[in-house]
Design goal:
Helix content is 77%, strand content 0%. It has 14 helices and no strands. By secondary structure, the protein is mostly helical.
Length: 307
C-alpha cells in the first residue's frame, strides 16, 4: 500500500503528458516549482532554517545555465550541473553569515543577499540583459536526441525526469543519519549539540544542498523557456516558494510537490477567472487550509485517511 502511494504521483505525472498535451508548458512550470519547493523543504522543513531570500540560488542557477547557452554551450545536462554547482558554492559561502546571525537576524541576512544579487544582475545588463532579460539563449537537444519545441513536450519530460531523480536523492538524504540529525537539530539544537552533533556544520551542509536544488530549478526554467530575467531573483519568487511549502506541508517531501501543484494550478485558474483579484481568492483558500489543521494538504489528507 505504501509503495502504491509513493508511486501514484509519478504515474499521474507521466499520465498528464498524454492526457493534457495542450497544457504541457503549465505542467513544466509545476515541475520546476515543485523542485524549488523541495529545496525549501530540505532547508525549512527538515533543518529548521527559515529564509526569505531563497530566490538568490534559483536566479543564480537560471542565469548560469542561460549565460552558458547564450555563449555557445547549450548542452542542458552539463549546464544544469554547473548551475547546481554555482548555487551550492554561493550557499556554502553565505551559510556561515546566515547561521551566525541567528534566527531573526539570519532571516534578514538571507533577504539582504537576495536583494544584493538582484541589483547586481540589474546593473550588469551587459551580461544578464538587465530588465530586458537574457536574450539569445539556445539550448541543445537533451542527450543530443530530443529537441525543445514550442509545445513543451521535451521540456516537460526533461523537467519531470530531473525532479524525479533529485526527489529520490532528497529521500535518501532525509532518511540518512545526516537527515535524522537535521530533524534533531530542528527539534532542539542544544540537545543535539550536547549529543555530539556538529550543529553548525550540518546546517551549513543542508543550506548548500538546498541551494543546489534551487539552482537546478532555476536552470530548468532558463533551459525550458530559453529565457532568464530578474523575476528569477525577485522576493516574490522566495515568498511563493514558502507559500507552496506551507500549503503542501512542512517536513514532507511529497508536501512540497503537492503544495507546488496546488499553488500553480490555483494561480492559473484564479488569474484567468479574476485577473485583478486572484490573490484575494487565493488568500481565502490559504486561510481555509491553515484553519483546517496543521500540516497543510498532506496533514489534512493523513487525517482523512485515518478517519
Amino acid at each position: 500500500m505504501r509503495a502504491l502511494l509513493h508511486g501514484l504521483p509519478w504515474v499521474a505525472a507521466v499520465g498528464a503528458y498524454f492526457a493534457f498535451p495542450e497544457f504541457l508548458p503549465l505542467l513544466s512550470g509545476i515541475a520546476i516549482a515543485a523542485l524549488f519547493a523541495l529545496s525549501l523543504d530540505i532547508l525549512v522543513g527538515y533543518a529548521g532554517v527559515v529564509t526569505l531570500g531563497h530566490a538568490a540560488f534559483f536566479g543564480l542557477g537560471a542565469y548560469t545555465a542561460g549565460i552558458l547557452a547564450q555563449q555557445g554551450w547549450g548542452e542542458p545536462i552539463s549546464g544544469l550541473l554547473l548551475a547546481m554547482g554555482a548555487a551550492a558554492l554561493l550557499g556554502a559561502v553565505t551559510a556561515p553569515l546566515v547561521l551566525r546571525a541567528g534566527d531573526l537576524a539570519g532571516l534578514m541576512v538571507t533577504l539582504g543577499i537576495s536583494l544584493m544579487l538582484y541589483e547586481a544582475a540589474n546593473k550588469a545588463a551587459f551580461v544578464t540583459g538587465g530588465a530586458d532579460g537574457l536574450q539569445g539563449v539556445e539550448v541543445w537537444p537533451v542527450l543530443g536526441i530530443w529537441r525543445f519545441d514550442l509545445w513543451g513536450r521535451t521540456a516537460y519530460l526533461y523537467s519531470l525526469a530531473v525532479l524525479f531523480l533529485l526527489f529520490l536523492l532528497a529521500m535518501l538524504i532525509v532518511r540518512s543519519p545526516f537527515g535524522l540529525s537535521l530533524r534533531g537539530i530542528r527539534g532542539n539544537a542544544r540537545r543535539a549539540a550536547a549529543l555530539g552533533v556538529p550543529v553548525k556544520r550540518r546546517l551549513a551542509a543542508a543550506y548548500a544542498i538546498a541551494a543546489a536544488y534551487a539552482g537546478a530549478a532555476g536552470a530548468l526554467l532558463a533551459q525550458t523557456t530559453q529565457f532568464a530575467s530578474l523575476d528569477a531573483l525577485s522576493f516574490q519568487r522566495s515568498a511563493e516558494g514558502l507559500l507552496m511549502l506551507v500549503l503542501g506541508g512542512l517536513g514532507s517531501l511529497y508536501g512540497a510537490l503537492l503544495g507546488a501543484t496546488a499553488f500553480t494550478l490555483a494561480h492559473h485558474a484564479l488569474s484567468e477567472a479574476s485577473p485583478q483579484f486572484w490573490q484575494f481568492w487565493f488568500g481565502v483558500a490559504l486561510v481555509v487550509v491553515a484553519l483546517a489543521g496543521r500540516g497543510g494538504l498532506v496533514g489534512l489528507g493523513r487525517r482523512l485517511l485515518r478517519r
